[in-house]
Amino acid sequence: MGLEVPWVTGYLTQHFADEAFIGIEGYERAGGYQALRSALDMAPDALTELVKGSGLQGRGGAGFSTGTKWSFMPKDSEKPKYLVCNADESEPGSFKDRILMERGPHQMLEGILIAAWATGAEKTFVYVRGEYALSAARIERAIAEARERGFLGERICGKEFAHDVVLMRGAGAYICGEETGLLESLEGKKGQPRKKPPFPAQYGAFGMPTTVNNVETFCHVPHIVANGAEWFRGFGTEKSPGTTIFGVSGQVRRPGLYELPLGTPLEQIVFEHAGGPLEGRQVKGVIPGGMSMPILPANLLDVPMANEFLRERKSMLGTGGIMVMDDRTCMVRASCVIAYFFRDESCGQCTQCREGTGWIHKIVERIERGAGSNEDIDILEDITGKMEGQTICAFADAAAWPIQGMLRHFRADFVEHVKQGKCPFSESFEL
Amino acid sequence: MISDPTRSAIDAEIARYPQRRGALLPALHRVQQEHGYVSADAAAELAEIFEIRPIDVLEVVSFYNMFYDRPQPRHHVYVCTNLPCSLRGARTLLRQLEAHVGVKAGEPTADGKLVLGHEECLGACAYAPMLRVDDTYHEDLDSERAKRILDELE
After folding, report:
1. How far apart are CA A72 and CA B89, in angstroms?
2. Which CATH code for domain A331-420?
3. Residue at B70 is within a domain
4. B141 and B79 inside one domain
5. Predicted local distance difference test score (pLDDT) of residue A6
6. Which of A35, A95, A147, A424 has most Cβ atoms within 10 angstroms of its Cβ?
7. Where in chain A is the domain with CATH 1.20.1440.230?
8. From CA A74, how far away is CA A80, in angstroms rounded?
C-alpha cells in the first residue's frame, strides 16, 4: 500500500500515476538518466554554477541555496568526499519525500549522481527513516537496477566517474532529521546533533567532507540540468524558484499532495485546491510549513508560499506541510499536542531544550485542564524566548516557534481557559 | 546467539561503511529481525563485533524508538496521534481500539499477540486516521476497519 498520487502534478510528479515509472525501464522510457549523461559532459564546477544560477533552495526546511552548499565542498582534498541524502522525513505534517521515494526512486538517484559528479563525492548514504519500509524497499530496488545498468559502480556511462549508494534505515528519532544528528546516527551513535562549525563540508560523515541534501532537493536537480536554469526560474518567485510539493492535512475537504510553484498563495491552496473547510465549518488557523512553523490565523492566509513573504508574517515555508484547523479546534489543545511532541523528541543534550520543552508541555497541559493562571501564559512566552538561539541545533527554536505563534494569534483561547477554569471548546478533537 | 546467516549479513553491512561502527544500526535491525529484540547477550556479542563496549550498544538501543531491549509481542500496532491525525479523530480511534483489545496503550495483550501504542507523525497526514502494523501502513481508517485489521492479525 503506497501513497496516493498528488491531486495537482508538476515536473516532479507528472509520471507518478504510472507504476512503470518506479522501475528503471519505465524511468528511462520517460527520459530518465538523460540529464545524468548531459551532466557528465559538463565540468563539475560548471554544474555547480548551473544549480546555483537556478536559485534552487533546499527543500528540507531551512531553504539554503543548494548550489552554494555544493560549492563549500573542498576541491583539493585528499580525503574521500561523501553525499548524504536526508530521507528522514519526520516533520509532522510532511509526507512529500515519502511519495518521491515510493513513486520516483530513480529520479532521486539521478539527482544524487549529478550532485556526486558536481561535488566529487565517491559515495552517498541515503538515510531513510525507519518507519518508511516501502520507501526503503523501492530505493534498494532502484539501487540494484541502476548498478545493473551501469549508472552506479565504476566508469559510470563510460566516464571516469565512480559512485556507490548505500541505504541506511533509521530507527525512530525525529532529531536524526537534523543534518548533524543524522551524521551521528550514520556513524552508529545516538543521534545527538554536533556543534557547528565545523560544518559538514569540512567535517561530515565519518569525519570526511560531506554535503547533506533533502530528498526533494535532489529530485529537482535532473530537471534543472535537462531544461536549464532559466526554465527553472520560470516557476515560483524571483527569490524562491521552482515548484514544491505541498502536503495538505487536517480539516479540509481534499487533503493530499499538491505540486505547485513556490509563491502560490496559501489561501488558494487551502480553499481552491484542497476544497476549503468541511461542510458548515470555517477555517480558524493554518500551520503553513510543518509543525515547527508558527501558525497563521484565517485573516493572514493571502500570503504567497515562499520564505520572503512568510517571514513578513513571522512564519516560514519549512517543509511545506500545511495543517488546517477549523473553528471547532481548541488552540490550547493543539498546543498540547505540539508541546508533547517536542518534549518527547528532544535529544536531551542542551539544558534549554531538555528542560524548556518539558516546562512548555506541563504548563500548556495545565492551562488546557483549566488549572492554569494568567501568569502561566506569560511564563510560556518567557520560556520560549529563552530557548531560541541558545542551543546546539535548531530543535529548541522549532519547539518554541509554534507556541509563540499560538500565543501571538490565539492568546484569547488561552485566556478563556484561565477565565472559565475549563476548556471552552466542547467540539474540539479529543486529547 | 546471533545466527550464522545474521552474522554474515552484519559482515556484509560492515563492508559498506568506511568505519565499522557505521553498520551498528543496520546490525541492530538484523538482530531484531531474528530475535524480535536486542537481548543483553546479543548486545554483548555486537559489542565484540563492533569493537566497542556493551554500554555503547545499549545506549544506541535505548535512544531509538524502534529498538527494543526486551521481548516483544508478535505485532506492534501504532496509531499516529500527532496533530494532523488528531484533527481527524486519531485519539478517539485509539481509545476505541484500547477498549476493543482490552488493554491500555503501551501494555501488551495477555496472549502476546500485540501491543497497541501511539506514535508520532508517520508521514501519512492526508490519510488520517491511520495506524502502522509492524512495517505496513493502514490509512483512511474508521473504527470498524481498524478493529478488523487487529482481529485478523495472527
Report:
1. 46
2. 1.20.1440.230
3. no
4. yes
5. 87
6. A95
7. 331-420
8. 11
Segment (H or E) for B138: strand B136-138
Longest Cα–Cα distance in chain B: 50
Tell me: pLDDT of B20 over 50. Answer: yes
pLDDT reading at B82 higher than 80: yes
Question: How many domains does one find in chain B?
Answer: 2
Reported ipTM: 0.97
Question: Low-confidence residues of chain A, pLDDT below 70?
Answer: 1-3
Q: Which amino acid, residue A266? A: L
Q: What is the pLDDT of residue A5?
A: 84
Question: Number of C-alpha atoms within 13 angstroms, CB side, residue A368?
Answer: 22
CB atoms within 10 A of CB B139: 18
Q: Identify the residue among B33, B53, B63, B97 best suited for mutation to test binding to A, counting A beta carbons within 10 A and taking the highest.
A: B63
Q: What is the pLDDT of residue A3?
A: 63
**Strand pairing report for B75-80 and B114-119:** parallel
- Shared domain check, B109 and B58: no
Name the residue among A88, A150, A154 with its Cα closest to residue A122. A154
Q: Is residue A4 classed as helix, strand or coil in its secondary structure?
A: coil
- CATH code, domain carrying B98: 3.40.30.10
- Give the one of A98, A188, A325 whose C-beta lies nearest to B87's C-beta: A325
CATH number of the A243-326 domain: 3.10.20.600
| Containing structural domain, residue B125 | 75-151
- Name the grid cell of A359: 516546562
Minimal C-alpha gap between B143 and chain A (Å): 15
Average pLDDT score, chain B: 96
* pTM for this prediction: 0.97
Question: Contacts of residue A429 in chain B, CB cutoff 8 Å?
Answer: 86-89, 91-92
The residues of chain A that CATH labels 3.10.20.600 are 243-326
* Residue A151 · residue A37 · CB < 8 Å: no
